[in-house]
Amino acid sequence: MDFAFSEEQQMFRAMFRDFSAKEVAPRAEEIDHEERPPLDVLRKAANQGFLGATLPEEYFGAELDGVSYAMLIETLAGDCMSTAVTLATHVSLVAMTILEHGSEAQKEDWLPLLAAGEAIGAFALTEPDAGSDAMALQTRATPEDDEVILDGVKTWVANGDIAGLFLVFAQGPEGVEAFLVPKDTPGLTVGYREPTLGLRGMTFNTLYLEGCRVPQANRLGGPGDGCEVAQRAQDRMAIALAAAGLGVAEASVDVAAQFASERVQFGVPIAKKQAIQDYVAGSLIEVEALRYLVYHAAWLADQGGDFSFDASIVKAFAARVARTVTNRMLQVLGGYGYMEDYPMARKYRDARALGIIGGPTELHHVRVAQRIFAERDLEIAP
Amino acid sequence: MDFTFSPEHVALRRMVREFAENEVAPLAMEIDREGRVPFETLRKLAKIGLLGVCFPQEYGGMGAGETGYCILMEELGRVCTSTATNVGAHIGIGAMAIYLDGTEEQKRKYLTPLARGEKIAAFVLTEANAGSDAAAIRTRAVREGDSWILDGTKTFNTNGSFADIVTVLAVTDPALGARGGITAFIVESDTPGFKVGTHENKMGIRGSSTAELIFEEVRVPHENVLGKVGEGFVSFMKTLDMGRLTLGAACLGGAQAALEAAIYWAKTRKQFGVELAHKQSVQWMIANMATEIEALRSLIYRAAWLVDTGRPFTQLAAMCKLYGSEVASRAIDMALQIHGGLGYTRDYPVERAFRDARIAEIFEGTNEIQRIVIASRIFREHGVRIRP
Question: Residue-wise over B194-221: b if at least 16 C-beta within 10 A, else e?
Fold first, then answer.
């Protein structure tokens, strides 16, 4: 075992921090308040290679290892969780899914564009009646000659408003299948944007597919491979979301610790009060536990093989830690924590998303339980 | 023992429920989005006597006691936390300070129009450097003949931007501090030198107004001293006790609404071929919410009974605020979770409830202050004096 970062990872981390402090932090409040997707930040991130963070160099990616990529998401989320999750959707859910399941032609067509930020990726899986039960899809994929016709309604399409490429899941003749659908495809319409509690710089949209024709060649993977494609994408995303949870939680501890050092009540900085020490210390302990769970899962994903179990563990834990830590740290700030002019309220609203997006905690618990009981020859249905 | 409500209180609840459903609930989303105080609602509440629900009829009130007031706050809290906040700041702390410590003349002159809802009150205490440590206020009041001259800046004042009458705490003798050096005053907001400063942009209760108030040589007649000179701190703490109890009642309403919404969604939403109600994780959440809500309801109305029967209630009032705010936050968090993604959007009331509820753990004495109040009383009974 070796828990030290490589020199390269340390260098990356310094670079991420520098970028985030300079380009992301100053924009975070505005991105949230104006509910504006951070397109200019994404352009700058593309110049740094972050939009192709884990793609190989041959597709103009930065070829980061998993741990470095987790640190990138963590760092961005510390300043602006909207930016971090927008980027993670693009990289983990879309670009990496094409890299893993795509044909050579698909990779050559799309990965350089995605890495350069010329197209942003969106992920269209959820439907009104298929949330946690993700494979209960109503959207149809009907083959006709060498084309496929897509019909249906998708909801909660992450990056919907800003995407150039949609990864759409639909029910085909042989099961669920995934398709690459460019934004300008006739029959594709981006609709309603969810007015979310937090992550207000992200866009989650309804997507209408009406007689939307794409070539058969746009199918990702083989016939009926959609479930596997979706699962792998969501496992990768679960780790990225956990990294975002780590970032927002540790940044909250930072904000609250600074506040507690400066805020004087009863003649002393409130940091001298044991209750505040309990809040801050308890939170940091959880953050540190989460940190190594995140880096471990990120490392594991790089080793090849199935990392579904660890992805669920880290995602469920991150959701809990991000929720409880932001809640406690808001309390440290008292009334100031409740005001939108301070960053805590935003972090608190943003962090709550993690219990829901990327699969609710209850679903990840079921997945963890499935593994636990499978070892005892018991099959658990969700 | 008798755990039933009187016929009058049952009738009051029926009336308030109807008002809340018909007049308050339909505006809740709009006032949150627009960040607007629903003055029309306050006028309607005044018209049917509810802005003086707990005060005696001789001062223009309804005479329904603390229990009646808790019923009002619970029912308002069930549909709109902002409205409950506006009403609570007016009745529970603003007017209450005058009711508890005002002279007969002050009650006739100030409490009566407040109880009738002809005028609106605010309770003005907090300063930038005096939050939990309320005794650290610096707003000064200096005697000048038959008047006092007030100077200072107060922050986080609910209703402060539009109140007609405010009760305000100021230092009258810096050498004496909280015990003897702080005095409460009744100030009419049209007094020269009374200014409204910046408005806070809050995460929730956006249909309530939280503003800075600036006192610049505000001249207040000596007859507007509330209680005795030098006893204002004790007086305000007594008022806050009452406010805490009814804030707990508003939290009870908020938690109850979350439970109702969660039950509705759990029996409506299907995943994996069944309604969510058939999932044990969801059942646990509902069972936990319901249990805590029942415990809170008993706590609130027992504390109200203590007040109405003239018994000591400070300890229980602190528990009402502490437990109420935490039960509401937990219940709303679970309701949001049961709603999944939709609960995370402003299209569903649970999202607003999530933002609104969080303030109750902070204002009217943070929950840390409540724990200090509770623990210090416990230890005092055991011969140990603790400091915050």
Answer: bebeeebebbbbbbbbbbbbbbeebebe
Low-confidence ranges of chain B (pLDDT < 50): none
Instruction: Point out the residue among B203, B358, B387 whose CB comes nearest to the CB of A340.
Output: B203
Domain A122-223: CATH architecture, name and number where available: Beta Barrel (2.40)
- B388 contacts A266? CB cut-off 8 A: yes
| pLDDT, tens digit (0-9, with 9 covering 90-100), for B283-294 | 999 999 999 999
What superfamily would CATH give domain A227-374?
Butyryl-CoA Dehydrogenase, subunit A, domain 3 (1.20.140.10)
Distance between B151 CA and the closest CA of chain A, angstroms:
22
B3 touches chain A (CB under 8 A): no
Range A261-264 contact pairs with CB under 8 angstroms and sequence separation of 24 or more = A263/A334, A264/B129
Question: Is B358 within 8 Å of A338 when comparing Cβ atoms?
Answer: yes
- What is the least distance, in Å, from the CA of B132 to any CA of chain A? 7
| pLDDT tens-place string over residues B221-235 | 999 999 999 999 999
Structural contact between residues A320 and A312, judged by C-beta atoms closer than 8 angstroms: no
Please work out, in degrees rounded to the nearest 5, the angle formed at the alpha carbon of residue B203 by the alpha carbons of B198 and B207.
70
Taking the Cβ of residue A166 and every Cβ of chain B, the question of whether any pair is shorter than 8 Å is answered with: no
Of B136, B203, B347, the CB nearest to A338: B203
ipTM of the complex: 0.93
Which tens digits make up the pLDDT trace of B266-308?
Answer: 999 999 999 999 999 999 999 999 999 999 999 999 999 999 9
Å from A268 to nearest chain B CA?
11
Instruction: Pick the closest to residue B88 from B47, B58, B135, B120 (CA basis).
Output: B120
Tell me, what CATH number does B265's domain have?
1.20.140.10
| Residue B186 · residue B226 · CB < 8 Å | yes
Element (H, E) at A220: strand A219-220
What torsion, rounded to 10 degrees, do the Cα atoms B308, B311, B312, B315 define? -60
Helix spans in chain A (H): 7-19, 28-33, 39-47, 66-79, 81-88, 96-101, 104-116, 226-262, 274-302, 308-333, 343-352, 361-374
- End-to-end, the C-alpha distance of chain A in Å comes to 35
Token pair recorded at residue B287: 């069972």
- Residue (of B209, B208, B210, B302) closest to B252 by Cα position: B302
* Runs of H (alpha helix) within chain B: 7-19, 25-34, 39-47, 65-79, 81-87, 96-101, 104-106, 112-115, 232-268, 280-308, 314-339, 349-357, 367-381
The model's pTM: 0.95
Final residue of a structural domain among B58, B87, B120: B120
The CATH number assigned to the domain with range A7-120 reads 1.10.540.10
Domain that holds residue B248: 234-381
DSSP state letters, B332-349 = HHHHHHHHGGGGGBTTSH
* Number of domains chain B contains: 3
CB pairs under 8 A between A and B: 108
